[in-house]
Amino acid sequence: MNKMTEQPITGVTGTGFTGLNQLSEDEFFEVGKRLSDMERGMQWCIGDWYNAIPAGKGNKYDSADGKKKACEEVGLSFTYARDCGWVADKFTMSSRNDEVKFNHHKMLAIEALTDGQRLDLLKQAEAEGWSSSRLKTERDAV
Is 13 helix (H, G, I), strand (E, B) or coil? Predict the structure, then answer.
């Protein structure tokens, strides 16, 4: 077991990553893999967070703009978080396909499609390596 799996990444700051030159080659590439995973999943995580903002009587997010206030409190763009939340709401955790980009899912998060159509198009996009442009064309044909 290497140090990376035993310890959290400690060199990450708000403006960069320090200490990379102190890692072994294996640790360095493990960090790269983790960063890649985080980057691919970030929009999903923001969307899930946005959708989980507590609402209801008795809390400060109860007003009509409560989700906006929550985003402002943590420094997230409300519009960006809302858009991520829209996509995350249209795809359950088990229907998300990490072999295609979040943007592919976003193109399919429209009301005109059924859940089945969304999943079929995602599977085709993965199997055939469709670009976003090709997926849009196929979506519009459905």
Answer: strand
**First-to-last C-alpha distance (Å) of the chain:** 49
Q: Which two tokens stand for residue 141?
A: 């044909």
13 forms beta bridges with 16
Cα distance between residue 89 and residue 135, in whole Å:
20
| Phi, psi of 131, rounded to the nearest 5 degrees | -75, 170
Q: Which of 111, 128, 109 is nearest to 119 (CA)?
A: 109
Q: What pTM, to 2 d.p., does this model score?
A: 0.79
Give 77-135 pLDDT, tens digit per residue: 999 999 999 999 999 999 999 899 999 999 999 999 999 999 999 999 999 999 999 99
Which helix (H) or strand (E) segment holds residue 17: the answer is: strand 16-17
